Amino acid sequence: MDAVVVRQVSKSFGGxxxxxxxxxxxxxxxxxxxxxxxxxxxxTTLIATMVGLTAPDEGRVEVCGLDVGSHLHRVQMxxxxxxxxxxxxxxxxxxxxxxxxxxxxxxxxxxxxxxxxRTGLWERRDQQVALFSSGWRQRFFIAxxxxxxxxxxxxxxxxxxxxxxAALAVRDLVREINRxxxxxxxxxxxxxxxxxxxxxxxxxxxxxxxxxxxAAELKDLVRDPGQPExxx
Length: 232
Ligand code: ATP
Fold this sequence. Notes:
Blueprint: E1 2-12, E2 18-28, E3 32-36, H1 43-50, E4 58-63, E5 66-67, H2 72-78, E6 79-83, H3 94-104, H4 110-118, H5 134-146, E7 152-156, H6 164-179, E8 183-188, H7 191-197, E9 200-205, E10 208-213, H8 215-222
Parallel strand pairs: 3-8, 3-9, 6-7, 7-8
Antiparallel strand pairs: 1-2, 1-4, 4-5, 9-10
Helix pairs in contact: 3-4, 4-5, 5-6
The structure holds adenosine-5'-triphosphate.
């Protein structure tokens, strides 16, 4: 079954700037699907259309068989999104923040303990998230993203700004979450990260999907001069 189906989605912002042009994308259930592209390519905008934060100008998106436009609330209960370097509330502990998010989703408090354990945060549960290192902060955001047991988790540049060890730890966590049954769409600038994690990778440039396939199939394209060099 397909977890997400995007058909002919276009989106423009003010000034006529086209962020997405007739995008088609299918994410198979159980996959870690990569979306690789440079700054401004349209990755975040595409995720926003898939989670229902942005309505496309044209085209349609289905998540778990539900049309996002007409079943927004149901879709938002089935998905979650994690952005790199999201802001956090000051002077609030990891557990307190997760309890707050659990309330938002009507999730039981036992889920807070589960996600704290799952992401390795249990020992740090009573520490302020604002004081975490960037690697632990990113784990916290992933914990937040798991609070509603999403069927599909959208990870927008989950390792951006992390040192190599923290990035590798986040990648391991992503793999484990996927093995436990969560479908993942991951955006990245790094081919090596996509190659390491993703069964299928879509290349996006200037709002268009320009190629899609396995890492082996895409390697030569991505290593062309002018493409961003992986830094991990
Ligand atoms: P990055 O890797 O830098 O996060 P991206 O691939 O996620 O980039 P988007 O953030 O989706 O790219 O942006 C795609 C294009 O749409 C860019 O030209 C951006 O300036 C524009 N854009 C995105 N959101 C808005 C907005 N709310 N208003 C106006 N333009 C926007």
